[in-house]
Structures are given as structure tokens and as C-alpha cells.
Amino acid sequence: DLPQVLVGGRYVTVLLDPHCYDTVVWESRTKLDFHAYAVFLMERIFDVQLPHYNPSDEKARMKPTLLHRDLQALTEAMYTNLRTVLLDDATEAGGGWHETGLLDFSYSSLLRAGYLTLYGVEALPRTHQSQTQDRAHSADVFHTFRQLDLLLPKLARGSLSVGDKDHVSKAKGRLWKLLSPARLATRAHRSTWLESYLLHLEEMGVSEEMQARALVLQLWATQGNMGPAAFWLLLFLLKHPEALTAVRGELERALCQVEEPVSQMTTLPQKVLDSMSVLDSVLSESLRLTAAPFITREVVVDMAIPMADGREFSLRRGDRLLLFPFLSPQRDSEIYTDPEKFKYDRFLNADGSEKKDFYKDGKRLKNYNMPWGAGHNQCLGRSYAINSIKQFVFLMLVHFDLELTNPDVEIPEFDLSRYGFGLMQPEHDVPIRYRFRP
Ligand code: HEM
After folding, report:
1. What does each C-alpha distance from 36 to 26, 53, 317 come to in angstroms?
2. Could you tell me if residue 401 is left (phi over 0), alpha (psi between -120 and 50 degrees) or otherwise beta?
3. Ligand 1 pocket, 218 CB below 6 A?
4. Whose CA is nearest to atom 7 of ligand 1?
5. Beta bridge partners of residue 23, listed in sequence order
6. Is 387 annotated among the ligand-binding residues?
7. Looking at ligand 1, which residue's alpha carbon is closest to its atom 36?
8. Membrane topology for this entry (predicted)?
């Protein structure tokens, strides 16, 4: 029941019964440690070494900056920045149809707006000139980031070619400059998240050079998943007209709740975002099919974990435990009918409320979809990410005509090298065309 694989001299136990996941993800760090692997990746991928680094402290510092009042501020800033990136880019490009790749378009829009939201903008109040600079600078950050992102799986596995190493080192060097504390110090409207993180690094006595590296790591942690998630969501909508019609219908109803004309809206109120349960279901379904993070733990002491069927399994000190929710629960045919298919209303009850009851072996599951991880290292930016993706889809559907260049195009296969890193990316981009509707 529990496949064990030997990787580089270490036994990795793969646990695929979602009924047991909760015990593992909430187990104390003195038994199942989740820091060691994070530190290894941090050093190997991002060259970050922090003195006295304690991920739990860092998490405690970050958490409040992504929730409650700060969440509202982030959501509002994101809406403004999405408009800067999407609408002003489109106005500048002029009317008529534009051709591009859907992944490039979605990833670039969300990362650029997300970067401006967290790391700050050129000036406040915004001027035409400062927004032009915001668009150019954020595009530079995205393009440089993307060069690194494309090589990330190879970098993590230590399999870069000589040419790749050169690309990686150039992209990192440029990102360290773009995100250096000195450069960021000149930016306006920086998020509480950034202020608090910088203070945390300073308190630990981290050098400015190392701070820049840590800020690049955070750019990846905070922005590496939203763009690909928005890509799959829009692609599923474009390939499933019944889903697109349902989302459009809901959007029109949501717009009736707001008093201003949409072109003058400077924010999309949380109550409007929360009223889009069809879009929520579409997002959950897209993530179910495309989110594939590894959840790993180092076994610190010999121990036994109870299984759902009453048996126990033993873990030896020094082994590694891996949960892979992408296989189960997310693609488990016992839990979902036709698990490979996109069904936009899979997470909706008949009365339009969120469906939360899913079963395996006759027992209700607590963890039935885990794109955000779970337990000690569940995603802290989840609410902000959900709001951001919904705002992006809203702006796209309200202000753009969007079509697949070839309506019969197949949904691309995954780039298999990305299993374990979060959202999957496609093997190749999907051509689309879009037209701005003022
Ligand atoms: C679709 C978008 C996103 C997805 C699918 C996602 C998913 C995840 C997952 C699976 C983890 C756990 C990683 C692990 O096991 O170590 C995680 C952690 C984290 N995420 Fe997200 N994330 C998204 C967006 C964001 C955003 C926008 C932010 C912040 C603005 C964010 C902040 C974080 C942080 C700080 C952690 C680390 C938590 C810890 O310390 O353990 N995420 N995310």
C-alpha cells in the first residue's frame, strides 16, 4: 500500500491515502520535520543562506500581513495594478486583435501586477508617466524571472548544462539588482508584507546582498503559481463554452450589485468577489487538475503512523515521507467521477453553495483538494491569490474579447519536469487573440 523508493541512498515513503494526510501535515516538527528540505531548496535554487533561519518565525511574521485589513489593502492595490498592466497596455497597443500565447499573457499580467502590489510602484499618486514606468519595469522583472523559472526544475535537480548555468547566473544576477533593498527603498506604496519581511531580515543581521537573494526567492514563492493557475482556468473556460456562459452569467449578476459603471471602479469589493461561487468552483476544479506540489517530511525519530483502516505503518529515522495529493485525492476515481475531466460545477451544490462533501472508502474526506498544501505549511497567500485570480478573470471578461486562435486546439500536455513544484505548466503555450473593449 505504501510504495517506498530509494533515491540517492535515502528511502522515500510515498503516502497516497488522503484519510491519513492530516496526521502527517499536523505532526510536530520534532517527529516529522518540514524545515530541512525547504532550507535545501532555498540554498540550491536561490543561493540563500540565512543565519538562525527559522521558517516558523518567518511564517508567524508574514501571516498577519496577508490577512484581514492587509488582505483588503493588497486586494485593492492588485486591482489597480492589474488595470495598469492590462488596460493601459491594451490602450497603448491600440484597437484591433492582438495575437499572443495564453500562458505568457496570463503569467505576465499576474506576476507584473503582483510584483507592483507587493514590492511597490514608481510613485504615488500615480501619474501617466509613473504608470508607464511601472509597466516597463514590471515587464523587465517578469521576463528576467521567467528565464530563471524555466530552468528551475533542472536547477533544483542539479542537471543544468553549461549553457543553462550561464543563463541562470545571468538571470539571477539581474534579478538581485532589480530587487536589491537599495532599489526597493525608492519605491512607493510598498506592501506591509515587504516592510515586515525586510525588517525581519535586518533583525537577523542579513547582509544587503543576501536580502536581495531572499527577495528573489520570495518573488518566486509568491508569484510562481498565480499566472499558471490563471492560464489553466482561462483555457478550461475557452474550451468549455457551458462553463464560460455560467461564469459570464454570474459576473453580470455581480455587476448589478455595484453602483458605479465598471470603467470607473477602482476596486472590486470583497462582497462582490465572494458572491462568485461559480467562478470559485471553476478555480477549485482547475487547481484540482493542475496543482501538483510535493509535501515532504524528514522522519526525525522512529515512529508509527495510524492508517485509516486501523493498521499502522512504521517510519524509520532518516527516511523521507512524501504526500502527493495530485494523485489522490485530486485524481482519485473513487472520490471524483471522471477525475481527468474538467467539470466546472464539480464544487457546487444544487443550491449554488460550495460543495464540500467528498468520500473515499465510505468515509467523508477532510482533504479532498490540496492545491494550497495543508497543515503547518499551508499557503499563507491563499485568500490574496484567490482574490487576484478572480479579479484578473473579471477584468478579462469585462474588458476583452478573448478567443483561441484555433478553437480545436488540444489542451497541451504537462511539462512533466515540474511535478512537485506547485502548479504544473504546459509543455507549450496556446495561441490566443484578444481585443480590448473600452
Ligand atoms: C495559485 C496561487 C498559489 C498556490 C497554488 C500556492 C500554493 C502553495 C503551496 C502548495 C504551499 C506549500 C509549500 C510547501 O509545502 O512548502 C504554499 C506556501 C506558501 N505560499 Fe502559496 N500559493 C499560491 C500563491 C501565493 C501567493 C500569492 C502568496 C503571497 C502573496 C503565497 C505565499 C505563500 C507563502 C508565504 C508560503 C509558505 C508558507 C510556509 O511558510 O510554509 N502563495 N503555497
Report:
1. 16, 11, 14
2. beta
3. no
4. 372
5. none
6. no
7. 379
8. Single-pass membrane protein
Q: What is the pLDDT of residue 94?
A: 78
The residue ranges of every structural domain in the chain are: 4-436
CATH 1.10.1060.10 fits 4-436, yes or no: no
Is there an atom of ligand 1 within 6 Å of 36 CB?
no
- In this structure, the number of other CB atoms found within 10 A of the CB of residue 203 comes to 11
Cβ-count burial 319-349 (b if 16+ within 10 Å, e if not)? bbbbbbbbebbbebeebbeebeebbbbbbbe
226 lines ligand 1 (CB under 6 A): yes
Taking each helix axis as running N to C, give the angle between helix 277-290 and helix 226-239, from 0 to 180 degrees, rounded to the nearest 10: 110
pTM of the model: 0.97
Provide the strand spans (E) within 331-399: 359-360, 363-364
Q: What does the alpha-carbon distance between residue 434 and residue 437 come to, in Å, rounded to a whole number?
A: 10
Helix axes 192-203, 55-62, angle to 10 degrees: 150
Q: How far apart are CA 152 and CA 171, in angstroms?
A: 11
The sign of the CA dihedral 65, 70, 75, 78 is negative
- Left if phi > 0, otherwise alpha if psi is -120 to 50, otherwise beta: which for 367? beta
Query: In the β-sheet with 32-33, what is the strand arrangement from edge to edge?
Result: 4-7, 10-15, 320-323, 295-299, 32-33
> Does residue 217 line the site of ligand 1, with CB under 6 A?
no
C-alpha of residue 420 to centroid of ligand 1, in Å: 13
The answer to whether residues 375 and 385 touch, using CB atoms and an 8 Å cutoff, is: no
State which ligand 1 atom lies nearest to the alpha carbon of 384: 27
Per-10-residue mean pLDDT, the chain, length 438: 76 91 93 88 93 88 94 97 90 86 98 98 96 97 98 95 98 98 98 97 96 98 98 98 98 89 87 96 98 95 88 90 96 98 98 97 96 93 98 96 98 97 97 92
